[in-house]
Amino acid sequence: MRKIAISTIMSLLIVSLLSAPGHAAEKPRVAVQWDRGLLVEGQIGRVYMDKNAVLFRLENNEMIKTNELRKAGDSFRIYSFKYIGKELFLGVGGGYFFHDTTATTYNTPSAVKKKQLKDRVVLKDALFPIAKNQYRPFTDSWGAPRSYGGSRPHEGTDILAKKGIPVYSATDGVIENRSWNRLGGWTYSIGYEGYSLYYAHLSKYEGNLTEGTIVKRGQLLGYIGDSGYGDEGTTGKFVNHLHFGIYDESNIAINPYPHLKYWETYND
Ligand SMILES: [Zn+2]
User: Fold this and answer.
1) If you measure from the C-alpha of residue 167 to the centroid of ligand 1, how many angstroms do you get, rounded to a whole number?
2) Cα-to-centroid distance, 243 and ligand 1 (Å)
């Protein structure tokens, strides 16, 4: 039997009311489309390059011009802004900024869009699957091209960590699958509230969490590794990391990145 939390129902309801009037019975959207892509957690706008422009870096409260050139026609997510005197700089993440000049156009999402994004985060109480300070800062690699096993878009988020670092269950749930997968190596799929959470490339499983086993949020599942991209036991084809995926009730992959960022920021 599937449990569905009231909060999940409420947030899905709000999203469907906002985004699909007259179609409330339809499956609610989990992604928020805005301009040329998905609006992600922490994003405050998007900048469009009308001309080539260089990036600036903030050092000791001064903006230093870098050699990093961005080409006309490109666009970037903006996560912060900073005034140096009256000059506005738009932060693209990683400590880099664009100078708000005639070379760029800046758009911000509406309040409705921001509310959709907030309501859209699924599994709001989930735990980040790796302990603080045991993994590298991670980026949104959703849709990035992958070539092993045929050309395909990346259906998850990669979190780099050293081999052997513990991986914990983000949620309560039931083990739907624990097996070798040619792409994912040693993997788990864990079902919770209609979603399936996928943990891949493990070096080792913890205990005997076989299909049907109930797990608790925060329970040790296994250890970071580099398994996959071949027959059972293949390792060393890429750097050690956790590939984390989320699949919805229809087994459609959704971008785990904003959810991971939310869990990382708000949940212990
Ligand atoms: Zn991956």
Assistant:
1) 15
2) 4
Cα–Cα nearest to 78, from 50, 35, 108: 108
Containing domain of residue 65, as a range? 45-107
Residue 233 within any structural domain of the chain: yes
User: 206-238: buried (b, 16+ CB within 10 Å) or exposed (e) per residue?
Assistant: eeebeeeeebebebebbbbbbbbbbeeeebeee
**Residues linked to residue 111 through DSSP beta bridges, in sequence order:** none
For CA atoms 49, 50, 54, 57, the dihedral sign is: negative
Percent of the chain, pLDDT > 70?
85
Identify the CATH number of the domain in which residue 163 sits. Answer: 2.70.70.10
pLDDT category of residue 11 using cuts at 50, 70 and 90 = very low
- Please give the distance, rounded to the nearest whole angstrom, from the Cα atom of residue 242 to the centre of ligand 1: 7
Give the total number of structural domains in the chain.
3
pLDDT, one tens digit per residue, over 65-102 is 999 888 898 888 888 888 888 888 888 888 899 887 76
CA of 139 to the centre of ligand 1 (A): 11
